[in-house]
Amino acid sequence: MSGAYDLHEWTAAQVRSAMTAAMRTDPRALDRLAEAGAGSLDQHSASFLRTARTLTLATSAALTGVLTIHRYGRDPYDRLVCAACGIDRCRTVRGVSDVLAAYGLQTRAVDRAEAWRRADAWYAGRAGRPVLLGVEPFGEGFVARPAVPPPEVPDQVLIVDRETGALTLWPAYDTDALASHYNAYKRGEL
Predict the structure, then answer these.
(1) Whole-angstrom Cα distance, residue 32 to residue 55?
(2) Engineered SS bond to 123: which of 14, 82, 108, 131, CB 3.0-4.6 Å?
(3) What span, in angstroms and rounded, lies between the C-alpha atoms of 127 and 44?
(4) Would the pLDDT of 190 be above 80?
(5) On the CB side of 161, how many CA atoms lie within 13 Å of its CA?
């Protein structure tokens, strides 16, 4: 795979990692921390602490939008190029990547428990009730299969990306077939 494509994937993973960290943060805990440190924090630091989660979520969402537009795919000549720029080394992706690298953001991989939590929330949100799930790992992520598929998605399963926690809906193939299709999807071949 090309270095530009890999750079895009790394950059997108960094942005999703920041978003995931913010989503996992309890905003009430940040408020309590700001209140507890009221005597030792200046007004601007306390204000930032109260808004840091929302600011991180908004910034991550904006960058996700930029990276969705500046995503690599095949052109008519089968070259891997940025869909927005039409060139093989997108300056926008490079710029975002350089900033994230300069600030030392680190991707935090999703473990099986986190994959289950995300899949559980997704299925319960659609079914309106808890759904018994099995979670199977594979190289790039986890397959979450409901024991009894809800009527809303009867023949589909979720894949939770191991690096980013992103959820995608797939046909209910066996795990090996899903792993193969998902790897092709991540390489931009599907």
Answers:
(1) 18
(2) 131
(3) 43
(4) no
(5) 19
* Phi-psi domain of 140 (left: phi exceeds 0; alpha: psi -120 through 50; beta: other): alpha
**Dihedral sign (CA 146, 144, 121, 185):** negative
Q: Could you tell me the two tokens for 41? A: 């924090």
Helices (H), the chain: 3-24, 27-36, 43-69, 91-102, 112-127, 175-186
Domain ranges of the chain: 3-102, 112-186
> In whole numbers, what is the pLDDT of the chain averaged over residues?
86
> Which pair of structure tokens corresponds to residue 188?
């931009």
- Give the pLDDT band (50/70/90) at residue 135: very high
Residue 60 phi/psi, 5-degree rounding, is -65, -40
Tokens for 124?
Answer: 């319960």
Please provide residue 169's backbone torsions phi and psi, each rounded to the nearest 5 degrees: -95, 135
More confident residue, 20 or 119: 119
Amino acid 148: pLDDT: 83
CA distance from start to end of the chain: 14
How far apart CA 140 and CA 126 sit, in angstroms, is: 25
